[in-house]
Amino acid sequence: MAKRGHKSPAPGTFQLTDVTAEIVRDLDTNSGWMLLLDGVPNSYLDLDDPTHLEFEYQQWMGRAVDLHAPDAEVLHFVHIGGGACAFPRYVAATRPGARQLVAEYNPELIALIREVFGIRTGPGLRIRAGDGRDVLAGQHSASADVVVRDAFIGPVVPPHLTTTEFIADVARVLRPTGLYLANVTDGPPLALARAEVATARETFEHVALVSETPVLKGRRYGNLTLMASPAPLPTGDLARLLARSVAPTRVLEGTELERFATGAVVTTDEAPLVPPAPPPHLIR
Questions:
Q1: What digits encode the pLDDT tens for the residues 56-74?
Q2: Collapsing DSSP states into helix, strand and coil, what is residue 230?
Q3: Distance between CA 233 and CA 248 in Å, rounded?
Q4: What global pTM score does this model have?
């Protein structure tokens, strides 16, 4: 959540350890700002409307949470990957009682978003500097309702956040009805997305995948949202909701998802899958 009365950000470029951050104004609105890391769009904030999610994959995540736990008064979130905290701001605005922990590996980036965007922390939102997997390992078992993985080094997910051992720790931290959401970026032939699905299916009984139809068919590069839970997922309601989207969007589950993951490698710490280089024009 941004501080009340915080001055408007100024566009700029900031050289941080291991990454270049850029703050860019959305020319279509006075309140919209984009954070880019090494030239890749990372976060979009509407400073006047924290419920606005610019990136479609975050919209899918928001709808998935709302459908999975519609009546929960207090939800505990662990976010692996922080950026400018766009999704945590959305959660704070739509679920005022939520308790959120954000793991962001770059302490200089944390300081930057606090200063530029006025991100305010407190009992409902904590930001911890450190590797997301280490922060997750420090959480008590069955302590979180939602774990969100939206962590990137440049345009790719760190391989150690995709393995069987990582997924097992996600399952340990989640409560029996908890929800795991992961942002996956991939393109033809979708080897990474297929491996993420196969790996999640080793641990979770219920797994689904959401994306635009052209991405799922391997026609172009894009975002996919992996959903997993020990409990049944609200895939039917989500599919009906996403059917109204401007861009054709689908939810894969069951036998259709099993076919999607056929032949995919299950990744481990000893044999992680190195993400392919994305095209230079990718959009996060």
A1: 999 999 999 999 999 887 9
A2: coil
A3: 21
A4: 0.95
